[in-house]
Amino acid sequence: MTNRQSHGWIDTDHYKIEWNDALLIGNRSIDTQHKRLVDMIQSIPEFNTARDDRVLNETLEYATTHFSDEESFMHDIAYPDLKAHTNKHKTLTRTLLAYARNYEKGKTDLYAFKHFMFRWVREHIMDEDRKIGQFFKTRSQTG
Questions:
Q1: What is the DSSP secondary structure assignment for residue 125, as one 8-state letter?
Q2: DSSP code of 122?
Q3: Spatial contact of 124 and 84, defined as CB atoms under 8 Å apart
Q4: pLDDT digits (tens, 9 = 90+) for 70-123
Q5: What is the pLDDT of residues 35-60, one digit of tens each?
């Protein structure tokens, strides 16, 4: 079953997300990074055919860089919820690290990781990061 949400197509049965312009926040660099994160999630196999630490490590590395860039952007535009948003990034980073450690120990699999990443996009990028875009858009129109 595919559920149509107001900010993009999400297939909740198979953890697939289609990129579309509704996900844009209005900063080319951040939008490109978000698209890359969605592409990375899509590339995670549905089933564990072989152990692949690379997927987790690349995602963790990319997310860390993205968080830093996004936090710099929020600082530059004087985003009022910068501290709270940064704390959410720290929590997400800790969770990503936990997935990586558990995967290395054989305590989790790529499907669970993909499910987490899917929820992250749905809950963080589509909700929290879109608030940044709305603030930026409003600020740009009045500034």
A1: I
A2: I
A3: no
A4: 999 999 999 999 999 999 999 999 998 998 888 888 888 788 888 888 888 888
A5: 998 888 888 876 665 666 777 788 88
Q: Structure tokens of 68?
A: 């830093």
What letters, b where the CB count within 10 A reaches 16 and e where it falls short, cover 31-64? bebbeebbeebeebeeeeeeeeeebbeebeeebe
Helix (H) or strand (E) segment spanning residue 5: strand 3-5
> Which CATH number does 3-142 carry?
1.20.120.50
* Backbone torsions φ then ψ of 16, nearest 5 degrees: -120, 145
- pTM given for the model: 0.82
What is d(CA 19, CA 34) in angstroms, rounded to the nearest whole number? 9
Q: Chain-centre distance of CA 34, in angstroms? A: 6
- Which helix (H) or strand (E) segment is 47 a member of? none
